[in-house]
Amino acid sequence: MSAINSVLVDIQAIFTAGLKAFFNEGNPLDINIIGEERSAEGLMLFLNKNLNTDLVIMDLNLPDEDGLELIPQIRKQFKNIRILVLTSYGDYKFVGQALKTGADGYILKSNEPEELLKGIEEVLTGNTYLAPGLHITPPNGKRLLGNKKSNYEDRFVIKQKLTTREHEVLELITQAKNNKEIAKELFISDQTVGVHRKNIMRKLGVRNTINLIKFALENQLV
């Protein structure tokens, strides 16, 4: 097998450095890391300049655009590139959406290194790879992570709680616009804006607009 030109996409520089060291330690696959990117925008620019890229190994949590939105963009523009998700998020909803929109494989960062090599080998031969323990539907009718919510949820997970319309409303709320102004801009009624506002506050666990704006800005939701 010829060298596999690969790009790593992850915000954690130490993690990608570790991956590069692992690939350089004489693994059976000839992985040639030709680039590292920290953002969705950076990756798309890289792929347009490096048309010899064979494989994208990417996290879902990126600073400018989450990976679930990025995957279909890569697939649409670069049909022959293999996409392997390497992330910390094992919820079946994320797994299912990633594979549905174009990912070729899905592996957790907690998996053994040998699992990563196996996944790469599988996707490069045209197969879809799902690491052991992952599901694309609720196992036994339950969420993969159980019924209890974690005390800590990062920006990526928080963003998945909101619908596209709720994201639009939230962005305008952070611009200090009232319900009527938001309604006019989105071509909906101010009553509908009020419902969206209440739903957003409920989903994010805040009780007033000031705390909502503070929460959205601190977690980079807009």
Give an account of the 3D structure.
- By secondary structure, the chain is α/β, with parallel strands linked by helices.
- It folds into two domains: 4-139, 3-Layer(aba) Sandwich (Rossmann fold), CATH 3.40.50; 161-218, Arc Repressor Mutant, subunit A.
- It is 45% helix and 13% strand.
- The protein is built from ten helices and six strands.
- The chain has helices at 13-23, 40-49, 67-77, 92-100, 113-124, 155-159, 164-173, 179-186, 190-204, 209-218; strands at residues 4-9, 31-37, 55-58, 82-87, 105-108, 129-130.
- Strands 2-1-3-4-5-6 form a six-stranded parallel sheet, with helices on both faces.
- Helix 7 (164-173) packs across helix 9 (190-204) and helix 8 (179-186) packs across helix 9.
- The longest helix is centred in the last third of the chain and has 15 residues, at 190-204.
- It starts with a strand and ends with a helix.
